[in-house]
Amino acid sequence: MTNRSIFLVGPMGAGKSTIGKLLAAELKLPFADSDKVLEDRTGADIPWIFDVEGEAGFRRRESEVLRDLCTGPTRVVATGGGIVLSPENRRQLRKNGLVIYLQASVDQLLERTSKNANRPLLQVADPRSRIIELVEERDPLYREVSDIVVDTDYCTPRQAALMVAERVAPGATGQ
Ligand code: S3P
C-alpha cells in the first residue's frame, strides 16, 4: 500500500480519468479528478470557463484546485493535461506525491479525444496538428515531474491501472 498520493499526468486523451478511477479502486484509495473538482466548485463547465475567463482564468483556478488536492487524504488524482505548464504546479506535484506520466501516441490521443467537444484547446480546424504541438511542448514537462512513465497505447484502461498499481504498491493487486 502506498502512503503517498498518486498524480496522473499526461495529454488529453491519455486516459487519466478512466485509469485513475480503476487505479483508485485497485488501491482502495479515494479518487479525485482536478477538472471535475474545478467544475463542481465553479458550477460551470470547462468550455464556459475558457469562454468567460480565458485560459489564464482557467489556469488560476486549476492551480488552486491542485493546491487543495495536495493536502488532505492520500488519494489518486487525475489532473488536467495542462497542469504541468506552471512551474509552481510542477513543484507541488513533485513534492506531494508519486507522479505517473500516462503516455499515448498522437493517433491514439486523436481518436480518444474526437468523441467529445468539451476540450476548448482542441476545438480547432486541425486537431491533429494541435495535439502534436501540445505534446512537443509538454512532453518534457511531464517527464520532468514524473517518477514513472506508462505507455497506454497497447493496453486497456484496466491493464494500465494494474500496471501502475503493481509499480506503486507491489503485491497489492494480487496479479
Ligand atoms: C487541458 C486538458 C483538459 C482540461 C482543459 C485543458 C489541457 O483536461 O483541463 O480542457 O490544457 O491539456 P484533460 O487532460 O483531462 O482532457
UniProtKB/TrEMBL annotation:
E.C. number(s) listed in UniProt: 2.7.1.71
Keyword match RNA-binding: no
Entry keyword set: Amino-acid biosynthesis, Aromatic amino acid biosynthesis, ATP-binding, Cytoplasm, Kinase, Magnesium, Metal-binding, Nucleotide-binding, Transferase
Lipid metabolism as UniProt keyword: no
Sequence positions that bind ATP: 13-18, 119
Localisation per UniProt entry: Cytoplasm
Cofactor notes: Binds 1 Mg(2+) ion per subunit.
Recorded catalytic activity of this chain's protein: shikimate + ATP = 3-phosphoshikimate + ADP + H(+)
Binding site for Mg(2+): 17
Residues that hold substrate according to the record: 35, 59, 81, 138
UniProt-recorded Gene Ontology molecular function terms: shikimate kinase activity
Obligatory cofactor(s): Mg(2+)
Ranges annotated as spanning the membrane: none
InterPro entries, alphabetized: P-loop_NTPase (IPR027417), Shikimate/glucono_kinase (IPR031322), Shikimate_kinase/TSH1 (IPR000623), Shikimate_kinase_CS (IPR023000)
Pathway(s) served: Metabolic intermediate biosynthesis; chorismate biosynthesis; chorismate from D-erythrose 4-phosphate and phosphoenolpyruvate: step 5/7
PANTHER family linked: SHIKIMATE KINASE, SHIKIMATE KINASE 1, CHLOROPLASTIC
Job description of the protein: Catalyzes the specific phosphorylation of the 3-hydroxyl group of shikimic acid using ATP as a cosubstrate.
UniProt record similarity statement: Belongs to the shikimate kinase family.
Record note on quaternary structure: Monomer.
Protein name: Shikimate kinase
